[in-house]
């Protein structure tokens, strides 16, 4: 017996050997014609036992032997069901139940019915062993409730909490709906490089890696923007990508260093067109989950009935901070009053910090904040009526930024000037510390006027599933490495308590 197993795992490993001695493969084999448990439950009669035979499989979630009978619950991703069998029904296969532990995987065959208390039950005459679980389930009152354990070992969270599985199924539905909506609008999905020689498309610190064969440093992308715009130059007039992006920055309730962004570009569009698309995407995602247009997020009531409110950056700053974005003296005075450092900062940087401090958290939304200070938006087209203002919007819901969009700048001369200005003073390790001259060259070949949009998929899923932290919607969030050890077992090795079956 291997010494790498703890004493609880040793007990299970001994049972594994006994299963093998019975001529049964403890790791199972192909199990055809399996019906999902959710479908099996629908076949149950109103009362009593039926003649309808079922064949399903799942993980043993509870188990109680009572002499010549055995009750146990099994679960799969569609639900949970009680199984009742006995020595008479199983015959020579009866010993296998003594060797079955919580979280083992088994197949069952029998008739579907209800016990006298009305509990949907499979009256099994076959139990097929499919996989032995060596690790003991975590303690119900400690390990099974420990957030760090559940995030670090997400599969445990998924096994014991069906709502966690449903959340990630909902995420999949949202992504599928976005793809269907955009392809229905004539967009083509493309894939752009994850490793880039020059990171661009956002102001963020990138992760650096090294390509040994070429002997060059590369960067994990912080955004797919500059490559998607190259597609516009090449004649692909509507493109989108659902991309994993990477930013070497902090972790909090709405930020993870690796996250998912949907980014799209439409030739001959603008930021007004992007607002229409954003509403279509979000409303479509809500419908895919069966949500009404009015929902609660925490204690906040939200109404997603389109069209959504549009308000200018200047209008909202005046409303919440009492100053306009062009009132430099007023902005600096208000910033100092609120403890915002202003020394040596550009006026529009102070405006941005004041906006973040006074406006963003107050935005219940959904609301499109439009017309940002132009100096904050180096990739955005200026308004022809006011070059101080960029045709950009951000969508806010419950104080959280959900989307960012522009009328895209397609003037290569101005773009190069803005990049040059932005790069001055940048730290070498930050993004865009080198100019992407290949992108400038692409613009010189003619990029059509266009609208562009980015939506944070993780935040959208948070919103529509009622999750309060991004870690709940990223199936394997980044965690600090930690030695593998026991998962909250008590001294007796007890896992989840076994509930009494519904007889």
Number of helices: 15
Low-confidence stretches: 489-501
Distance, first to last CA: 39 Å
Radius of gyration: 29 Å
Shape: elongated
Given helix and strand content, the structural type is alpha+beta
Helix content: 25-40%
Q: How many individual β-strands?
A: 19
Q: Beta-strand percentage? A: 25-35%
Q: How would you state the average pLDDT, rounded?
A: 89
Biggest sheet, open or closed, and with what strands and sense? 9 strands, mixed
Quaternary class: single chain
Structure, described:
The structure is a single chain. This protein is α+β, with helices and mostly antiparallel strands and 503 residues long. Helices cover 30% and strands 27% of the residues. The chain contains 15 helices and 19 strands. It has helices at residues 7-21, 37-42, 87-90, 95-98, 147-152, 154-160, 162-184, 225-233, 271-288, 313-321, 328-337, 347-358, 412-423, 437-444, 457-465, and strands at 49-66, 69-76, 79-86, 105-114, 120-131, 188-189, 195-196, 208-211, 216-220, 238-246, 258-267, 294-297, 300-303, 309-312, 367-373, 382-383, 386-397, 400-407, 450-456. The strands form 4 sheets. Strands 6, 10, 11, 14, 15, 16, 17, 18 and 19 form a 9-stranded mixed sheet that branches. Helix 6 (154-160) crosses helix 7 and helix 13 (412-423) runs antiparallel to helix 14 (437-444). The longest helix is centred in the middle third of the chain and has 23 residues, at 162-184. The relative contact order is 0.12. Residues 489-501 have low confidence and may be disordered.
């Amino acid at each position: 017996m291997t010494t790498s197993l703890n004493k609880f795992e040793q007990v299970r490993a001994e049972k594994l050997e006994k299963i093998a001695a019975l001529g049964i493969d403890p790791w199972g084999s192909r199990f055809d014609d399996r019906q999902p448990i959710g479908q099996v439950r629908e076949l149950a009669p109103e009362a009593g036992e039926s003649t309808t035979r079922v064949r399903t499989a799942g993980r043993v979630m509870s188990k109680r032997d009572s002499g010549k009978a055995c009750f146990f619950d099994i679960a799969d991703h569609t639900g949970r069901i009680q199984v009742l069998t006995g020595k008479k029904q199983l015959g020579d296969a009866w010993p296998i139940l003594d060797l079955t532990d919580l979280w083992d995987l088994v197949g069952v065959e029998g008739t579907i019915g209800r016990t006298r208390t009305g509990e949907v039950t499979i009256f099994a005459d076959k139990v097929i062993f499919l996989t032995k679980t060596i690790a003991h389930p975590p303690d119900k009152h400690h390990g099974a409730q420990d957030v760090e354990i559940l995030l670090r070992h997400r599969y445990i969270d998924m096994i014991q909490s069906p709502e966690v599985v449903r959340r990630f199924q909902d995420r999949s539905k949202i992504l599928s709906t976005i793809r269907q909506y955009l392809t229905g609008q004539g967009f083509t999905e493309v894939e752009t490089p994850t490793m880039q020689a020059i990171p661009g498309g956002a102001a963020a610190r990138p992760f650096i890696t090294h390509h040994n064969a070429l002997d060059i440093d590369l960067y994990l992308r912080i955004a797919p923007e500059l490559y998607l715009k190259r597609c516009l130059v090449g004649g692909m007039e509507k493109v989108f990508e659902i991309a994993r992006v990477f930013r070497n920055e902090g972790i909090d309730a709405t930020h993870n260093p690796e996250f998912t962004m949907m980014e799209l570009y439409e030739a001959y569009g603008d930021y007004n067109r992007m607002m229409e698309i954003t509403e279509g995407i979000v409303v479509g995602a809500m419908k895919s989950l069966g949500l009404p247009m009015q929902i609660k997020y925490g204690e906040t009531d939200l109404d997603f009935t389109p069209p959504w409110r549009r308000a200018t950056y200047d209008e909202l700053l005046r409303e919440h901070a009492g100053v306009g974005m062009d009132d430099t003296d007023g902005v600096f005075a208000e910033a100092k009053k609120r403890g915002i450092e202003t020394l040596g900062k550009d006026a529009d940087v102070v405006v941005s910090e004041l906006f973040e401090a006074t406006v963003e958290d107050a935005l219940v939304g959904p609301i499109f904040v439009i017309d940002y200070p132009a100096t904050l938006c180096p990739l955005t087209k200026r308004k022809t009526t006011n070059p101080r203002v960029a045709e950009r919007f951000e969508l806010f819901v419950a104080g959280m930024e959900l989307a960012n969009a522009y009328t895209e700048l397609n003037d290569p001369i101005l773009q190069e000037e803005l990049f040059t200005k932005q790069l001055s003073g940048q730290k070498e390790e930050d993004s865009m510390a080198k100019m992407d001259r290949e992108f400038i060259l692409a613009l010189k070949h003619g990029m059509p006027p266009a609208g562009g949009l980015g939506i944070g998929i993780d935040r959208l899923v948070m919103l529509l599933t009622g999750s309060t932290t991004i870690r709940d919607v990223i199936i394997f969030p980044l965690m600090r490495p930690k030695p593998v050890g026991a998962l909250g077992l008590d001294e007796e090795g007890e896992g989840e308590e076994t509930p009494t079956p519904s007889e």
